[in-house]
Design brief:
The structure is a single chain. The protein is mainly α and about 190 residues long. The protein is about 80% helix and about 0% strand. It starts with 5 loop residues before the first helix and ends with a helix.
């Protein structure tokens, strides 16, 4: 396996940095008429798509891990390690669904729940690593072999960018308020 060259870092910076700069700039830019920025449009639509797909990604992770779980089950304390990991991932999946439902219902709690989901990414990863390591009796560095850190770090960084957007965006603030939903219901009547 080769090293990560400066060109690879430049590509990563372009792929993640440029959209982040545009997202932050557009979220911080005052609108001529901020009341118009309501609903799932603009950058919020991308967040909504990502949040909708996140439980599906977690389910895909379960499906991809099935063979590994079967191999681990044959080890001493393997079933305990597998059941613990499955329980952690199911709890995280439940949190993702709660966040998704709050987003779709335009709940004022969505920003806080999204932040909790962001903090849950490293928490679930750390708890899973410690649980697996202690139950299987292997050092943590063996549990983290290969590219085991890449996916959770990437998820944490990308979700962190979206969390910053959620707390900076006028559209998010206008969309996820109880007053706004009440006004929309009143105007629809």
């Amino acid at each position: 396996m080769g090293t990560f060259s400066i060109w690879h870092w430049a590509i990563v910076l372009l792929l993640f940095g440029v959209p982040v700069v545009f997202a932050v700039r557009s979220a911080a830019k005052p609108s001529q008429n901020p009341e118009v920025l309501v609903g799932f449009g603009g950058w919020l639509m991308l967040l909504a798509i990502g949040q909708t797909l996140s439980p599906l990604r977690t389910l895909a992770h379960f499906a991809n891990s099935a063979d590994g779980y079967q191999k681990i089950m044959t080890l001493p304390n393997g079933s305990l390690a597998v059941y613990g990991e499955v329980a952690l991932n199911l709890a995280f999946l439940a949190l993702q669904v709660v966040v998704l439902v709050s987003m779709l219902r335009r709940s004022r709690r969505f920003p806080q729940l999204f932040l909790c989901q962001w903090f849950a990414i490293p928490a679930v990863f750390i708890l899973d690593t410690i649980w697996t390591s202690s139950n299987l009796g292997v050092p943590v560095n063996e549990v983290l072999a290969g590219d085991a850190l890449a996916t959770p770090i990437a998820s944490f960084v990308v979700t962190g960018i979206w969390a910053a957007y959620v707390y900076k965006s006028v559209r998010v603030r206008n969309t996820f308020t109880r007053t706004n939903v009440s006004a929309q219901i009143a105007s629809a009547s």
